[in-house]
Amino acid sequence: MLVVAGWLVLNRQYVSDQVIVWAYTPTAQITSIEERVGFTEKGKFYFYATQPEVAYGNSFNQQCPRQEVGSPILGCYTNGRTYIFDVTNEQLDGIEEVTAVHEMLHAAWERLSTNERQRLGDLLRQQFSSLDDEELKTRIAYYERTEPGQTDNELHSILGTEVGQLSDELEEYYSQYVNERAAVLALHDSYDGLFTSLSDTVNTLYDELTSLEEKINNNTEEYNSSSNVLSAEIDDFNARAENNGFTSEAQFNQERAALVARSSQLDDGRATINNDIASYNRIYARYQDAASQIEVLNKSIDSFEVLEPSPSL
């Protein structure tokens, strides 16, 4: 009996987890997430030990409070429970699954020994320092502000679900939780690629608009200046014509032809400006479309933007 009692003391976390897993009945949504992710038995055990729940709107916000305005979150692991935001936008297929793995890895981290965390922390920070990823650096800076002391913990979840090229040691480590990490990465890259593609489109179109706007403004300024000069010279020409100000018909015809040619050049310049304005408007329409798509996607992952179901009797 002493041996059993001693084993229970040393393995109380496992015993507690096992009791929870036995009592936990996953919803169809959670089962679908688990099966699609391809957890190993260990990964599934840790996942179910957190009694994962897919939540929406206020229900999610109550469990996973936001740390900073404008920084929506997709899931959280808190007080031994995992909550996943219910993203209903079909364009973001896979985002709940990746979030589930991310939060499961937080639970796994919590169950590591101090020595294991230290060893893994060194590997994770070394891997992070080798990555040339400004967006990831910004995210880690956010966690350093909002969750001091949890950098290794966050790297543990982020690198495992989002970064393709990891050291052999880290790949071997993560293989104990998911059968095919590449499948998780593919899910992540699918929706993340949509954000990246739209963002790249917006940036490219913005640069085109900025360049074209500068061209239109410069050409318009030049056109207006030239038009004013030509208008004054035409007035002068007409005044001299009315007052016999030309020494010969040849002089009259020569000056008139020069003014007509300059007027024609101005017409060409105006046509070019109008064509550029039309191009600007077409590009701006594409820019607005891409920007609106990003806005829709961002609202889809923002638990403060979703509408609660209408109350019913």
Count helical runs.
12
H/E series: HHHHEHEEHHHHHHH
The number of distinct β-strands equals 3
Sheet with the most strands, sense and barrel status: 3 strands, mixed
Strand order, main sheet: write it out.
1-3-2
Task: Kindly provide the radius of gyration, computed on alpha-carbon positions and rounded to a whole number of angstroms.
Answer: 33 Å
Percent helix, as a range, is over 70%
| Average pLDDT metric | 91
| Overall geometry | rod-shaped
Strand content range: under 5%
**Unreliable residue runs:** 2-10
Oligomeric state as shown: single chain
End-to-end Cα distance: 56 Å
What count of structural domains? 2
**Helix/strand structural class:** mainly alpha
Explain how this protein is built.
The chain is mostly helical and 313 residues long. It folds into two domains: 15-191, no CATH class; 192-300. The protein has twelve helices and three strands. It has a three-stranded mixed sheet. Strand 2 (75-78) and strand 3 (81-85) form a beta hairpin. Helix 2 packs across helix 4, helix 6 packs across helix 9 (151-162) and helix 11 packs antiparallel against helix 12. It is rod-shaped. The chain starts with a helix and ends in a 13-residue tail after the last helix.
